[in-house]
Design brief:
Layout: H1 4-63, H2 71-96, H3 101-109, H4 111-125, H5 142-145
């Protein structure tokens, strides 16, 4: 298993940009979409987009040369990223929106909150979804680096 620092680095690199994207999409959802569709409809529209963003970010992290692709490490990454994401959600509610912890938990028990929590659970599982191994870097051949009009040293 990779060291804890690698797992937490993978988790933070996955959770932080996903949280930032979620904050932006959440603002759009609350201000523009919820008045038109209601809370459940708005979350149903946002959820596939957020999971697509999370999938892309997760892939970038797992393809990084410093990241571990071992199953146990990807599982630990998902659990740690979920922990970070939920902590950030709690801090956002407490510090930015002035909510009490009970309000935050009641929001998660509402139908739209349960759908959002389901999406966050899917976020935690995305690192476990099999992906193809990253392609090795392509080495340029001489013919690709020198246009035909240039004289070649090997000619």
């Amino acid at each position: 298993m990779a060291g804890r620092h690698v797992i937490w680095a993978m988790a933070a690199a996955y959770a932080l940009p996903t949280f930032a994207a979620g904050a932006l999409m959440g603002a759009v959802r609350v201000l523009l979409v919820t008045p038109l569709t209601g809370p459940v409809g708005a979350v149903l529209l946002e959820l596939p987009m957020m999971l697509a963003v999370a999938w892309l970010i997760c892939g970038l992290i797992l393809d990084a040369p410093w990241a571990s692709r071992r199953f146990a490490d990807r599982l630990a990454m998902g659990v740690a990223a979920f922990t970070l994401l939920m902590s950030l959600e709690m801090l956002l509610g407490l510090l930015v929106f002035g909510q009490e912890p009970g309000e935050i938990f009641r929001g998660l028990s509402a139908p739209a909150g349960r759908l959002g929590l389901l999406g966050q659970a899917a976020f935690a599982l995305l690192p476990l979804v099999p992906r193809p191994a990253p392609a090795p870097p392509k080495r340029a051949s001489t013919s690709e680096t020198f246009p035909a009009a240039w004289p070649r040293a090997d000619a």
